[in-house]
Design goal:
Largest sheet: 6 strands, mixed
Helix content: 25-40%
Radius of gyration: 19 Å
Order of helices and strands: EEHHEHHHEHEHEEEH
Number of helices: 8
Distance between the termini: 38 Å
Strand content: 15-25%
Shape: globular
């Protein structure tokens, strides 16, 4: 396939990637079992009434999408493609808690509506008035890969369009405890940079949100995406 170009991007991560442009010069080091994203003041992008109604994933997604479009010089994309392994997980947890507390009787549907994987993509379509192609992939760790692959195929057939592509997932305590039972995480705190120096059993839980504006024609100093390959998952024998 022909290369596609990143015309704008925005990121929220534990590295404070929204503070400096394009990225922090030196990575922030942590000594913990879970990392949470450093967040900006959303009031510059989202109204105060909307902020109270949005869950955390929605706020991160709307902020990143808006900043990426501003960097690309666009008001509205032609398509929106999102990847999320677990969706707005905190609202999923809240919905299940309400069901248990109410003994499965009638309850407010707010948490359920905003917990779906495509809620961020739908919110962006409404805010940007984008009536074009809108799809959300929920393929766990392959979600962003699937979204980018879809964008490459879409631009192959529609070379003049601009696509807003992103991925997000959030850290939730219930998820952390659940996957700890499967030895996904380190049992004791470890510095995040030490994960690159060898093979360990388990890793560090994290979260973040990243959005890109992609097009088939680049600008000066645009980054070109030539090809992709899904990372191979190591076996337990290799980890141990």
């Amino acid at each position: 396939m022909k290369p596609i170009f990143i015309l704008g991007q925005a990121s929220l991560s534990p590295q404070g990637s929204y503070i400096t442009d394009p990225l922090p010069e030196h990575p922030v080091q942590y000594d913990t079992l879970a990392l949470t994203a450093l967040e900006p003041d959303y009031k510059g992008v989202i109204g105060p009434v909307e902020i109270r109604r949005m869950n955390r994933s929605m706020k991160m997604g709307v902020w990143c999408a808006k900043k990426a479009l501003e960097q690309a010089g666009l008001e509205r994309p032609d398509a929106i493609i999102t990847g999320s392994g677990l969706g707005c997980l905190q609202d999923t947890v809240n919905f299940l808690k309400v069901m248990l507390d109410s003994e499965e009787s009638a309850s407010a549907p707010t948490f359920f509506i905003s917990s779906t994987h495509n809620s961020v993509g739908g919110q962006l379509a409404l805010r940007l008035q984008c009536t074009g192609y809108n799809f959300t992939y929920c393929h766990k760790s392959l979600s962003l890969y699937s979204a980018l692959l879809d964008a490459m195929l879409h631009l192959e057939n529609h070379p003049g369009q601009h696509i807003l592509v992103g991925a997000l997932d959030e850290h939730v305590e219930e998820k952390f405890r659940h996957y700890a039972l499967r030895d996904w995480w380190r049992r004791y705190p470890i510095k995040n940079m030490e994960l690159f120096s060898g093979k360990f059993q388990g890793t560090i839980s994290g979260e973040g949100c990243h959005y890109f504006v992609l097009g088939s024609k680049g600008k000066p100093q645009s980054v070109a995406l030539m090809d992709m390959r899904a990372a191979e998952q190591p076996s337990r024998a290799e980890i141990e």
